[in-house]
Amino acid sequence: MKLVYFAWIKDRIGLAEEEVELPAGIITVKDLLRWLRGRGAHYEAALQAPEVIRVAIDQEHADHSDPISGAREIALFPPMTGG
Amino acid sequence: MSIEPSVSVQSGRIDIAAVTAELALSGDVGGVVTFAGYCRSEDGKLAALELEHYPGMAEKEIGRIAKQAAERWPLLAAKVIHRYGKIAPGEEIVLVACASAHRAAAFEAAEFLMDFLKSRAPFWKREHLIDGTVGGWVEAKHEDDTALERWR
């Protein structure tokens, strides 16, 4: 599965995107965020307040309770500030 | 049948006069409402705003919002252009243009579009200061989320 990161989440993780193999038991967006946080200090710094993280599954906004099975691309980003 | 809005995500400048004229061409249009958002200098401190975006989703999400506007109001044409990359103070960041036979629909649709763009289109602003340093990412405003409530 491809993960893509934007704005300060990208800065803190130190990557714009990566391919990951998810372990069994990662069902929802919330599970994914918890698993990512455990991958090291950079991830912990980016995701320490998971409630503020916005998520898109295959380029559509998603909730933390949404399932991620079958997703090709999941994006993590802070609240948007365009316009 | 609602119209198919036009969406562009681009780094180049926006020709607001040309867009306005293009939307009015059909002959049935009685009003075109445009909103243009600009980069502020923040009292001379800012050299530029850098707009990061999510290519692909940015176009799709603006398209989804614009389609909702076209289904909700009797628009004759609608165009949204959002820039990315470095934008200097005084330059435009975004243009929303809505054309309708009577002004109320165009006014309301343009405001709806801007409210939803602000909190749902995947763009993020970062400040570049005149002393050459890169400032922080701009924080989202709570008002931008509450602005959506009135359209429910």
Walk me through this protein's architecture.
By secondary structure, chain A is of the alpha+beta class. The longest helix of chain A is centred in the middle third of the chain and has 9 residues, at 29-37. Chain A has a five-stranded mixed beta sheet. The N and C termini of chain A lie far apart (30 Å). Chain A has one domain (2-77): Roll (Ubiquitin-like (UB roll)), CATH 3.10.20. Chain A has helices at 7-13, 29-37, 41-47, and strands at 2-5, 17-19, 54-57, 60-62, 73-77. Chain B has one domain (6-151): Aldehyde Oxidoreductase, domain 3 (Alpha-Beta Complex), CATH 3.90.1170. The radius of gyration of chain B is 16 Å and the shape is globular. The chains are: A alpha+beta (83), B alpha+beta (152).
Structural topology:
The complex is a heterodimer of chains A (83) and B (152).
Chain A: E1 2-5, H1 7-13, E2 17-19, H2 29-37, H3 41-47, E3 54-57, E4 60-62, E5 73-77
Parallel strand pairs in A: 1-5
Antiparallel strand pairs in A: 1-2, 3-4, 3-5
Chain B: E1 6-10, H1 16-24, E2 31-38, E3 46-53, H2 57-72, E4 75-83, E5 85-87, E6 92-100, H3 103-120, E7 123-129, E8 134-137, H4 142-146
Parallel strand pairs in B: 1-4
Antiparallel strand pairs in B: 2-6, 3-5, 3-7, 4-6, 7-8
Helix pairs in contact in B: 2-3
Please name the defining characteristics of this protein.
heterodimer, A: 83 residues, 5-stranded mixed beta sheet, B: 152 residues, alpha+beta, Aldehyde Oxidoreductase, domain 3, 4-stranded mixed beta sheet, 4-stranded antiparallel beta sheet, 8 strands, Mopterin_synth/thiamin_S_b (chain A), Molybdopterin synthase subunit MoaD (chain A), Beta-grasp_dom_sf (chain A)
Give the biggest sheet of chain A: 5 strands, mixed
**Which residues of chain B form runs of ≥5 with pLDDT under 50?**
none
Number of domains of chain A: 1
Alpha carbon gyration radius of chain B:
16 Å
Any idea what the shape of chain A is?
globular
What is the residue-mean pLDDT of chain B, rounded to a whole number?
Answer: 96
Largest sheet of chain B: 4 strands, mixed
CATH arch. level architecture of chain A = Roll
Looking at CATH, which topology of chain A would you report? Ubiquitin-like (UB roll)
Count of beta strands of chain B: 8
Largest interface by Cβ-Cβ < 8 Å: A-B, 16 and 28 residues
- Bin the strand percentage of chain B: 25-35%
Radius of gyration of chain A, in Å, reads 12 Å
CATH architectural category of chain B: Alpha-Beta Complex
CATH class category of chain A: Alpha Beta
Helix and strand string of chain A, N-terminal first?
Answer: EHEHHEEE
- For the secondary structure, the number of strands of chain A is 5
CATH superfamily of chain B: Molybdopterin biosynthesis MoaE subunit
CATH fold label of chain B: Aldehyde Oxidoreductase, domain 3
Q: For this entry, what is the oligomeric state of its chains?
A: heterodimer
**CATH class group of chain B:** Alpha Beta
